[in-house]
Design a protein that fits this description.
Distance between the termini: 29 Å
Largest sheet: 9 strands, mixed
Shape: globular
Helix content: 25-40%
Order of helices and strands: EEHEHEEEHEHHEHEH
Radius of gyration: 17 Å
C-alpha cells in the first residue's frame, strides 16, 4: 500500500512566542529538536524522542509535532498497531492507530492537541484508512490535569471528535476492563467495505457477541 504523506504547517502566537504545528515530519527533521522535559507521560523524554524517530522512519509512520523552533512541545503519532495487540492480527494495510497524543504541561489549553490531529487529516490524506485509537485511563494525566476520570474521558472524546472519530463497541479485554476506557474510530471515505467488515471481526473476537 502506498502511504500518502502531505506536509502541512500551522502557527500560533503564545506570549510573544511563535509555536509551529507541522507534519508529517521526517526523522531528520525530528533530530533537529530537543524534547521538552515535561513530555514524559509514556516514558522518559529521551526514550520517547527515540521512539518518535523510529516511528517517523516507518513507511506508514506519521509524526505531527508542535515546537517553538528548538524544543518539541507536543506530538501525535500514527502507525500500524503493535503486533502484540489484537488490532494487528488481521495484518490490515489500511488500519492505522493514532497511538499517542501528548502536550507539555506548560502549553496545555492552547488547542495544540486538536491542531496537530487536524493537520494529520488535511487534504484527504487519511481517507483510505481506518484510524483508531484506544483510550486507557491509566495513560491519562489525572493528577496534572486535576480532572476526574470521566472529565478526562470527555475531554479525549471531544479531542477525537474534531476529526470525526466516534465511539465503537468492542469486546477487547483491556478496553472492557474499565468503563472509562474506550475505542474511537474514524472510517475513511475511501475504505472498502471488505476492510470495514474485517475491522468489525477484529473488534469482536467472541463471535457470539457480534
Amino acid at each position: 500500500m502506498q502511504h500518502l504523506k502531505l506536509y502541512h504547517l500551522d502557527t500560533l502566537d503564545h506570549n510573544g512566542q511563535t509555536i509551529y504545528v507541522e507534519g508529517p515530519v521526517s526523522a531528520d527533521q525530528l533530530r533537529s529538536f530537543q524534547m521538552h522535559k515535561q513530555l514524559d507521560a509514556f516514558r522518559k523524554p529521551k526514550e520517547q524522542f527515540d521512539a518518535l524517530v523510529d516511528i517517523s522512519e516507518l513507511p506508514e509512520g506519521r509524526i505531527i509535532i508542535a515546537h517553538n523552533g528548538e524544543t518539541l512541545l507536543g506530538y501525535v503519532t500514527f502507525h500500524y498497531p503493535d503486533e502484540m495487540e489484537r488490532w494487528s492480527e488481521a495484518g490490515m494495510k489500511d488500519l492505522l492507530e493514532l497511538g499517542a497524543v501528548e502536550v507539555a504541561n506548560d502549553y496545555r489549553g492552547l488547542g495544540l492537541g486538536s491542531r496537530m490531529i487536524r493537520i494529520a487529516f488535511e487534504d484527504r490524506q487519511l481517507e483510505s484508512y481506518i484510524i483508531f485509537t484506544t483510550e486507557y485511563y491509566w495513560h491519562w494525566d489525572l493528577k496534572g490535569s486535576g480532572l476526574s476520570v470521566w472529565e478526562y474521558r470527555r475531554m479525549m472524546e471531544r479531542l477525537m471528535k474534531t476529526v470525526d472519530m466516534v465511539w465503537y463497541a468492542t469486546d477487547d479485554p483491556e478496553i472492557c476492563s474499565h468503563p472509562a476506557n474506550c475505542l474511537m474510530v474514524r472510517m475513511g471515505k475511501d475504505v472498502p467495505l471488505a476492510s470495514q467488515e474485517q475491522f468489525d471481526h477484529i473488534r469482536f473476537v467472541r463471535r457470539f457477541m457480534y
